[in-house]
Write a structure and sequence with these properties.
The chain is mainly alpha-helical. 86% of the residues lie in helices and 0% in strands. The longest helix is centred in the first third of the chain and has 66 residues.
């Protein structure tokens, strides 16, 4: 990219430098958003795991109470035993459905599935940001090479890769699935 007098064409280099600056800005956004999405995915995965563990503990407690009630019903036929059996059955029903606290098995299952859905959405975003980052990094290298090589087609290639990087960043932010 030289003029007729052998000097570097600064206007073209300034344009490429501006392109590289814009690409670096897109890269910064893509990396930041990608890291945030990755962190969210990990958090939601932990939340879902904790909720499923709580769900399983409620299942074990519920099963234990139902078994105790059934066993007691078979072995004892007294008013006190019947009272205890009803109490155990009531508690077992509460373990299954406890809308006031959100800690019944039904509610825990719904919360765990919601956390899994959020995790999956965050992971989808993260993957788009990773593709965006890769495209922009390659675009920066190609744009830099265009200055050294003096090949205008490399600027166009860098621009196309930059647009692809921006597109994947937008997809990751607004349309991850």
């Amino acid at each position: 990219m030289s003029g007729g007098n052998g000097h570097v064409d600064h206007v073209s280099n300034k344009g490429v430098a501006l392109l590289i600056s814009v690409l670096a800005l897109v890269l910064a956004f893509s990396e930041t958003l990608g890291k945030a999405a990755q962190t969210s995915a990990i958090s939601y995965n932990i939340e879902a795991s904790n909720l499923w563990a709580f769900y399983q503990s409620k299942t074990v407690r519920r099963t234990t109470l139902r078994t105790a009630a059934e066993q007691t019903a078979l072995l004892a036929d007294s008013p006190k035993a019947k009272e205890q059996i009803e109490e155990w059955k009531k508690t077992a029903r509460r373990y299954q459905d406890e809308p006031e606290t959100g800690e019944g098995r039904d509610q825990l299952e719904a919360r765990a599935k919601a956390a899994q859905a959020k995790r999956d959405l965050a992971m989808a975003s993260y993957h788009h940001y990773e593709v965006s980052s890769a495209a922009v990094q390659i675009a920066i290298v190609v744009a830099s090479a265009s200055i050294v090589a003096g090949v205008p087609a490399l600027v166009w290639l860098a621009s196309v890769l930059g647009v692809a990087g921006v597109a994947f960043c937008v997809i990751g932010f607004w349309f991850p699935t």
